[in-house]
Write a structure and sequence with these properties.
- The complex is a heterodimer.
- In chain A, 0% of the residues lie in helices and 50% in strands.
- Chain A is mainly beta.
- In chain A, the strands form two sheets. In chain A, strands 2, 4, 5, 6, 9, 10 and 11 form a seven-stranded mixed β-sheet that branches.
- The radius of gyration of chain A is 13 Å and the shape is globular.
- By secondary structure, chain B is mainly beta.
- In chain B, strands 2, 4, 5, 9, 10 and 11 form a six-stranded mixed β-sheet that branches.
- The chains are: A mainly beta, B mainly beta.
- At the A-B interface, strand 5 and strand 10 of A face strand 4, strand 5 and strand 9 of B.
Chain lengths: 113, 112
Amino acid sequence: EAGVAQSPRYKIIEKRQSVAFWCNPISGHATLYWYQQILGQGPKLLIQFQNNGVVDDSQLPKDRFSAERLKGVDSTLKIQPAKLEDSAVYLCASSLEFEGVAFFGQGTRLTVV
Amino acid sequence: GEDVEQSLFLSVREGDSSVINCTYTDSSSTYLYWYKQEPGAGLQLLTYIFSNMDMKQDQRLTVLLNKKDKHLSLRIADTQTGDSAIYFCAESLYSGNTPLVFGKGTRLSVIA
Protein backbone atom coordinates (compact mmCIF):
# COMPACT_ATOMS: atom_id res chain seq x y z
CA GLU A 1 0.00 0.00 0.00
CA ALA A 2 1.46 3.36 -1.01
CA GLY A 3 1.94 5.89 1.76
CA VAL A 4 1.15 9.58 1.88
CA ALA A 5 3.00 11.36 -0.92
CA GLN A 6 4.18 14.96 -0.64
CA SER A 7 6.04 17.23 -2.98
CA PRO A 8 8.36 18.99 -3.18
CA ARG A 9 10.67 17.62 -0.47
CA TYR A 10 12.56 20.89 -0.13
CA LYS A 11 11.85 24.48 -1.07
CA ILE A 12 13.82 27.68 -0.55
CA ILE A 13 12.11 30.98 -1.27
CA GLU A 14 12.60 34.63 -0.45
CA LYS A 15 10.26 36.37 1.95
CA ARG A 16 7.14 37.80 0.33
CA GLN A 17 7.22 35.13 -2.38
CA SER A 18 4.52 32.50 -2.79
CA VAL A 19 4.84 28.75 -2.42
CA ALA A 20 2.56 25.74 -2.78
CA PHE A 21 2.81 22.22 -1.40
CA TRP A 22 1.02 19.15 -2.68
CA CYS A 23 -0.23 16.06 -0.85
CA ASN A 24 -1.71 12.81 -2.09
CA PRO A 25 -3.17 10.80 0.81
CA ILE A 26 -3.40 7.05 1.14
CA SER A 27 -6.11 5.74 -1.18
CA GLY A 28 -9.49 5.69 0.49
CA HIS A 29 -8.53 7.90 3.42
CA ALA A 30 -11.29 10.42 3.95
CA THR A 31 -9.52 12.59 6.51
CA LEU A 32 -6.52 14.72 5.55
CA TYR A 33 -4.43 16.96 7.79
CA TRP A 34 -1.75 19.59 7.25
CA TYR A 35 0.65 20.14 10.15
CA GLN A 36 3.44 22.66 10.60
CA GLN A 37 6.55 21.53 12.45
CA ILE A 38 8.95 24.29 13.46
CA LEU A 39 12.47 23.15 14.32
CA GLY A 40 12.65 21.71 17.83
CA GLN A 41 8.89 21.47 18.28
CA GLY A 42 6.15 18.94 17.76
CA PRO A 43 3.81 19.23 14.78
CA LYS A 44 0.90 21.65 15.10
CA LEU A 45 -2.30 21.32 13.14
CA LEU A 46 -2.98 23.88 10.44
CA ILE A 47 -6.08 22.42 8.83
CA GLN A 48 -8.16 19.25 8.78
CA PHE A 49 -10.36 18.06 5.91
CA GLN A 50 -13.02 15.40 5.93
CA ASN A 51 -13.47 14.45 2.27
CA ASN A 52 -13.43 17.87 0.58
CA GLY A 53 -14.89 19.82 3.50
CA VAL A 54 -12.94 21.74 6.14
CA VAL A 55 -13.41 20.37 9.67
CA ASP A 56 -10.94 22.57 11.55
CA ASP A 57 -8.91 25.52 10.27
CA SER A 58 -8.81 27.49 13.49
CA GLN A 59 -4.99 27.47 13.60
CA LEU A 60 -4.50 28.41 9.95
CA PRO A 61 -3.18 31.98 9.46
CA LYS A 62 -5.81 32.79 6.89
CA ASP A 63 -4.31 36.12 5.90
CA ARG A 64 -1.47 34.25 4.18
CA PHE A 65 -2.22 30.53 4.21
CA SER A 66 -4.85 28.74 2.15
CA ALA A 67 -5.62 25.09 1.51
CA GLU A 68 -7.96 23.14 -0.64
CA ARG A 69 -8.85 19.54 -1.24
CA LEU A 70 -10.53 19.21 -4.57
CA LYS A 71 -12.65 16.11 -5.13
CA GLY A 72 -11.80 14.87 -1.66
CA VAL A 73 -8.46 13.36 -2.66
CA ASP A 74 -5.32 15.47 -3.30
CA SER A 75 -4.70 18.64 -1.36
CA THR A 76 -2.60 21.76 -1.81
CA LEU A 77 -1.39 24.18 0.85
CA LYS A 78 -0.36 27.65 -0.25
CA ILE A 79 1.49 30.45 1.49
CA GLN A 80 1.27 33.94 0.02
CA PRO A 81 3.25 35.98 0.91
CA ALA A 82 5.77 33.97 2.93
CA LYS A 83 7.42 35.30 6.08
CA LEU A 84 10.68 34.26 7.69
CA GLU A 85 8.77 32.58 10.54
CA ASP A 86 7.07 30.25 8.04
CA SER A 87 10.33 28.30 7.77
CA ALA A 88 9.32 24.83 8.93
CA VAL A 89 8.51 21.32 7.80
CA TYR A 90 4.98 20.98 6.45
CA LEU A 91 3.59 17.54 7.05
CA CYS A 92 0.54 16.00 5.44
CA ALA A 93 -1.26 13.10 7.10
CA SER A 94 -4.31 11.03 6.33
CA SER A 95 -6.55 8.64 8.19
CA LEU A 96 -9.16 6.15 7.16
CA GLU A 97 -11.87 7.22 9.55
CA PHE A 98 -12.62 10.37 11.42
CA GLU A 99 -10.11 10.28 14.32
CA GLY A 100 -8.58 7.05 13.06
CA VAL A 101 -4.87 6.33 13.07
CA ALA A 102 -3.02 9.04 11.13
CA PHE A 103 -0.23 8.21 8.69
CA PHE A 104 2.24 10.92 7.74
CA GLY A 105 4.11 11.80 4.59
CA GLN A 106 7.82 12.67 4.44
CA GLY A 107 7.09 16.37 4.69
CA THR A 108 8.21 19.45 2.76
CA ARG A 109 11.01 21.44 4.34
CA LEU A 110 10.47 25.14 3.62
CA THR A 111 13.20 27.69 4.15
CA VAL A 112 12.28 31.36 3.81
CA VAL A 113 15.28 33.68 3.42
CA GLY B 1 -7.10 22.21 27.75
CA GLU B 2 -4.80 20.09 25.67
CA ASP B 3 -1.16 19.79 26.60
CA VAL B 4 1.36 16.99 26.14
CA GLU B 5 4.65 17.08 28.01
CA GLN B 6 7.79 15.04 27.37
CA SER B 7 11.35 15.20 28.59
CA LEU B 8 13.57 16.51 25.80
CA PHE B 9 16.54 14.15 25.89
CA LEU B 10 17.38 10.55 26.76
CA SER B 11 20.68 8.78 26.35
CA VAL B 12 21.10 5.01 26.70
CA ARG B 13 23.70 2.38 25.93
CA GLU B 14 23.15 -0.08 23.13
CA GLY B 15 21.45 -3.21 24.43
CA ASP B 16 19.86 -1.46 27.41
CA SER B 17 16.16 -0.66 27.69
CA SER B 18 14.90 2.86 26.97
CA VAL B 19 11.89 4.35 28.70
CA ILE B 20 10.36 7.51 27.25
CA ASN B 21 7.72 9.21 29.35
CA CYS B 22 4.83 11.47 28.49
CA THR B 23 2.12 13.23 30.47
CA TYR B 24 -1.09 14.60 29.07
CA THR B 25 -3.74 16.80 30.59
CA ASP B 26 -7.00 16.02 28.85
CA SER B 27 -8.84 13.13 30.45
CA SER B 28 -11.06 12.93 27.36
CA SER B 29 -8.21 11.45 25.33
CA THR B 30 -9.29 8.23 23.74
CA TYR B 31 -6.21 7.36 21.66
CA LEU B 32 -2.57 7.88 22.61
CA TYR B 33 0.19 7.45 20.07
CA TRP B 34 3.93 7.14 19.77
CA TYR B 35 5.57 8.37 16.59
CA LYS B 36 9.24 8.18 15.60
CA GLN B 37 11.00 10.83 13.52
CA GLU B 38 14.44 10.26 12.05
CA PRO B 39 16.50 13.20 10.73
CA GLY B 40 14.96 14.70 7.61
CA ALA B 41 12.06 12.28 7.61
CA GLY B 42 8.37 12.38 8.34
CA LEU B 43 6.66 10.81 11.33
CA GLN B 44 6.51 7.04 11.50
CA LEU B 45 3.71 5.55 13.57
CA LEU B 46 5.22 3.14 16.08
CA THR B 47 2.24 2.11 18.14
CA TYR B 48 -0.92 3.41 19.75
CA ILE B 49 -3.13 2.47 22.66
CA PHE B 50 -6.80 2.97 23.36
CA SER B 51 -7.66 4.63 26.64
CA ASN B 52 -9.47 1.53 27.88
CA MET B 53 -6.19 -0.41 27.84
CA ASP B 54 -3.39 -0.38 30.42
CA MET B 55 -0.66 -1.98 28.36
CA LYS B 56 0.19 -2.92 24.82
CA GLN B 57 3.18 -4.92 23.66
CA ASP B 58 4.49 -5.10 20.12
CA GLN B 59 7.83 -6.91 19.67
CA ARG B 60 10.45 -4.70 21.38
CA LEU B 61 7.95 -1.98 22.24
CA THR B 62 5.82 -1.86 25.38
CA VAL B 63 3.36 0.94 26.02
CA LEU B 64 2.05 1.55 29.52
CA LEU B 65 -0.90 3.83 30.24
CA ASN B 66 -1.76 5.14 33.70
CA LYS B 67 -5.03 6.98 33.23
CA LYS B 68 -5.25 8.08 36.84
CA ASP B 69 -1.94 9.96 36.56
CA LYS B 70 -2.40 10.73 32.84
CA HIS B 71 0.98 9.18 32.18
CA LEU B 72 2.06 7.27 29.10
CA SER B 73 5.38 5.52 28.62
CA LEU B 74 7.16 3.77 25.78
CA ARG B 75 9.71 1.11 26.62
CA ILE B 76 12.11 -0.06 23.94
CA ALA B 77 13.83 -3.31 24.83
CA ASP B 78 17.37 -4.07 23.61
CA THR B 79 17.82 -0.56 22.24
CA GLN B 80 19.84 -0.40 19.02
CA THR B 81 21.70 2.46 17.34
CA GLY B 82 18.96 2.48 14.70
CA ASP B 83 16.52 3.51 17.42
CA SER B 84 18.23 6.89 17.70
CA ALA B 85 15.56 9.41 16.72
CA ILE B 86 13.01 11.82 18.15
CA TYR B 87 9.98 10.17 19.70
CA PHE B 88 6.68 12.05 19.85
CA CYS B 89 3.80 11.32 22.14
CA ALA B 90 0.40 12.44 20.82
CA GLU B 91 -3.16 12.37 22.03
CA SER B 92 -6.41 12.36 20.14
CA LEU B 93 -9.62 13.52 21.74
CA TYR B 94 -12.97 11.98 21.04
CA SER B 95 -14.71 15.30 20.76
CA GLY B 96 -15.82 14.93 17.22
CA ASN B 97 -13.36 17.23 15.51
CA THR B 98 -10.00 17.29 17.29
CA PRO B 99 -6.94 15.76 15.63
CA LEU B 100 -3.58 14.84 17.15
CA VAL B 101 -1.93 17.04 19.77
CA PHE B 102 1.80 16.39 19.97
CA GLY B 103 4.43 16.85 22.62
CA LYS B 104 7.74 18.50 21.75
CA GLY B 105 9.44 15.15 21.34
CA THR B 106 12.16 13.24 23.18
CA ARG B 107 15.49 12.90 21.43
CA LEU B 108 16.84 9.40 22.08
CA SER B 109 20.57 8.93 21.63
CA VAL B 110 21.90 5.38 21.66
CA ILE B 111 25.57 5.02 22.55
CA ALA B 112 27.38 2.06 21.03
